[in-house]
Known about the structure:
Blueprint: H1 7-14, H2 45-53, H3 76-87, E1 91-92, H4 100-103, E2 108-110, E3 116-117, H5 125-132, H6 144-163, H7 171-193, E4 198-200, E5 218-220, H8 221-240, H9 245-254, H10 266-282, H11 292-302, E6 314-316, H12 327-330, E7 337-338, H13 340-344, H14 351-356, E8 357-358, E9 378-379, E10 394-396, H15 401-414, H16 418-431, H17 446-460, H18 467-473, E11 480-487, E12 493-500, H19 511-514
Antiparallel strand pairs: 1-7, 2-3, 2-12, 4-5, 6-10, 8-9, 11-12
Helix pairs in contact: 3-18, 6-7, 7-8, 7-9, 7-10, 8-10, 10-11, 11-15, 15-16, 15-17, 16-17
Amino acid sequence: MKSLLNKAAFLLALSFVVSCQDNILDTDIDPVDNNLPSTASLNNVDGLTTFSKGIYDFIASDDVFETVGAELESPMLFFTYGYHESMGDALTTPWGNFANRWINQTESVVLDDGTVVLPPAGGPQPGEIAIRNTRAAGSDNPTQYEWRDMYGLIVQSNTIAEALDNLEADDATKDAFRAWSLWWRAYGYNRLGSMYEQGLINDSGLISNPTSEPSTQFVDNSQLISKSNEILNELETLLNGVTDVATFDGRFTGLQLAYLTSKVNLAGLQENINSLRVRNLVYNTPVADMTTADWNQVITLANNGVSANANAFIMQSESSFIDNNWIPGQVTGFWYFPSERLIQDINPGDVRLDLYFEPDFDFPNPRGRGIQYGASRFWNDNTPIVSSNPLGATMYYAGSFEENQLILAEAKVRTNDIEGGLAHLDAVRTFQASGLAATVGTGLTQDQALEEIRKERRLALIFRAVAFYDARRYGVAATSRTGAHVLDENGNLNTNATINYGYLEYWPVPAFETDFNPVSPTPN
Length: 524
């Protein structure tokens, strides 16, 4: 298989300017290679360690408003996650920067009295994304960011693996580097396959393919998910063969940012493999298509999934790397509002409602851009989910304790072990100090239990970029939600509205790719 991108396309995708201004990309400038890393430094452990830590430049960086250059500023934990949260109607944003507004532009809203309210500008989300999926749209093309960062991540990971052939180190050290490479490759294909209609398989790095000869072999997103699972199998086999665990753990944890308060070791990585397998299956299969065998497989995997957040891949705020340019630091700057449907889904008596959200905010129809964006609450600062203080908040890249418990809850309830499932639900509510009474032993039906789990996922997993996956697999993202809470333009709360979302379930390949590498009409 040839490489993902030719050199020009790859560098162009990595060298746009991310800014609050619209359409600032000069598409007439030829891409210039000033920032490719030197592979000569990868033949020793110190050099390869530094290069391996460069993975973080594709998944989090301090100032996403700077020109993307040597630091490869990534919006991953800011508006890339924000796209997922807003399409899942956990957050809303009426602002046009980076096309945020158009990502959560609904088809229509039907109020309690039957009044149909259309967007005051533009049309439904699929058309708005199509309009902006051009290189001329510059920073307003939303399709480019996750694609760029995940394929950059994959190329970096491939290069790490290629460097091992000439690395002078013991087997456990090499295994740690290889495991780091395999994990992030599997993660990258998971995210690409969970977001885009098509993609490319790229097994080459900068050592074997320094000119990045392009691949034209587009594949369906299901094959990207299969690739992720294939890599996870390889990683599992590798970990099972590690004999010097102490040396492996020392090197593997040393590849993670030093200031993070917890780091994944070999045992934690084994748990993450299973949790990512769960994501690959559950988040890319409609609930209606999941079989009992599928749910039993989920239970088996999740029983060995992320058992504690100390074993999760995380990011925390710190002035030299993240600071405030991520969702926990930006929401209080009015970038995003808590969706009225999120607030609706929080149970009475849940301590998190007033802890997380400021009441009496009253911001209907922001700037006349649409009533679906309206909010009655805002964010409290310095809470478990929102903070501008160093180490004050944590974000998650893949599985977490809460996500694993809630998927076990859902899988068990869907296989008729209602009480067993509710025990996992209660564990999450206890862990997050919700103050809610236990659901075990209350006689909930299967449908009632599933509804409690659905609502809990909305709140317990906020900012973890799974809201859209849930809306899609529940069949809501592309269709409608009934019985919805919506503020009309005067701030009156409608409690039985219908929101017709009509969102794309998977995004098209970005024009930043297809202009150089035309997409296949019928992918392999």
